[in-house]
Protein 1
Amino acid sequence: MKHELDKPLLLVADDTPENIDVLAGVLKDDYQIRVATNGTIAFKLLS
């Protein structure tokens, strides 16, 4: 397993909690996951 800081950072933006859970669950071993539940939050995280 990779050290957390060695993983690329990935932003998951979705307003459906189930989709976020599935994506984060599948990708968490290879990516640092950040979550946004709407577009406004996503843009704030990107800036």
Protein 2
Amino acid sequence: MDAQFSNNELHKVDNEDYRSITSIVYLLQAIAIFTALPFFIAVIINYIKKGDVKGTLSESHFQWQIRTFWYSLFWGIIGAILVFVLVGYAILFINYIWVIYRIIKGWLRLSSGQAMYI
């Protein structure tokens, strides 16, 4: 006998699955603090699953994660270029702290069931 779920129960299961994927992306971003490859894997997951999370709590988190990736990549490149004039070290450090802040902020809001403000 197959279990039958109401629409609300199915929606809840979907949201839990999406929250798990969103949490995995935050984990990959956190690991990326030490090595860059997981950051790229995380954003690929974001883009692949972006359509699936439309209209859910995870949608705002995906936007937050994608923006974190692109801005950190931009400032990382600028910082790397400017390392030769020493100001690049400050840019890289600030970028590093900013990424950590965004990961923590997003993960805390996800765990408390809150959407990200965009």
Protein 3
Amino acid sequence: MASDRIDSEEALIDEFLAPLAAGFPGAFGLADDCAVIAPGAGEELVVTTDAVVAGVHFFADEDPGAIAWKALAVNVSDLIAKGAAPLAYVMTLALPEAPERGWFTAFSNGLRRAQEAFGCTLAGGDTDRTPNELSVSITAFGTIPAGAIVRRSCARPGDHVYVSGTIGDATLGLKQRRDASLGLR
């Protein structure tokens, strides 16, 4: 019986990741070891990085599309908090085994939806095997008008603070997932 696993990095890139980089000229179709990310005239590049790891930031059996969305969203959130517009990202995937085609289809579809929602594109990265849990590490790049960065140290009494979503939802969801007897909805 033929395996439904993706056994080579080349197949993973060609079938799933290169389409996510389409339209970003500096990604070179993910056929090079580096990407070129150039901010526009009068802009600065803002950079952030975060990883999400199975067993720490998500459950290993979670929907792959949701894992991908979260991995990109935590990075884009940092860019937006600094006043930057998302531009591109690079991603490193450490996979515990060759991924099943269905799993990676859902993962790449989740990334595509996140890219479309956040207005950024995959520019490069790396895939590798790990003896540990799945890890997705993203470094995201955004642009901002020169000198316009919003820094923590610049906050002053009287400034407005905006929150998107409901504070505590993630913690509540985690508690429910760990203990279904709580009956939370």
Protein 4
Amino acid sequence: MTSVQRPSSRLVGVSTKMYFDIPTTKSYLSKVLSSLPSSLSARVFLLPDFVTLQYCVDTAAGSPLIIGAQHTHHEDKGAFTGEVSPLVLAQAGAKFLEIGHAERRRLFAETNDGVVAKCVAAARNKLTPLICVGEVSKEGGEEKAVEECWEQVHAVFASIPKGSPVILAYEPVWAIGASQPATPSHVVAVTQLLRQKCAKEVGWTGDDLTILYGGSAGPGTYEKIKDGVDGLFLGRFAHDPAAFIRTIEEVQKA
């Protein structure tokens, strides 16, 4: 397999989804900030809920912790009651923007076209899109998985400025919330093929493209799949701040 340039630094982060209340978020953030490795070579991010996002941005100011959002509308302004503007998220200090998670596709009928529109909105507001991709079923093997992932994101690359940074979080739908992640060989094969496809088809490589794994990932995961991915996108396994810090250290050392 032809070698493709990978990003210059690894990346690891966590989404709190809708599990944390305000006191829990404040406590979690305090523990994470006080425990980050002093010699931090990896980039680290946190995606809190909307209500605590501004608090997290303000509290993390001056630290290496990047704060992002879990969702956005595709328009900056308008009569969209209950939605959140990407412009406002950028003004609040968010840097990353999660888009296309399988839960939002399943529960809120989000589509590939919607993902494209939100990625355009992210690029317009200088937010880095973190796009969740993954096959629905275990059946079909690595080639089929890559086809499904590519179908979910290929139009994004045609719709945003060349050179815009993109993060792909590979999360097989069948592995989300599972007790065991996908096998390391499967993850490595799929992400290596996906990186090749991004390079060949649209020319996204190096620091412009970071590929993470996120399907039931946690401590002990990264060492097994580092040949394919540039870091981890964590969920409930990292809601324990000690587990999050341990995973950051593992990603740095691997």
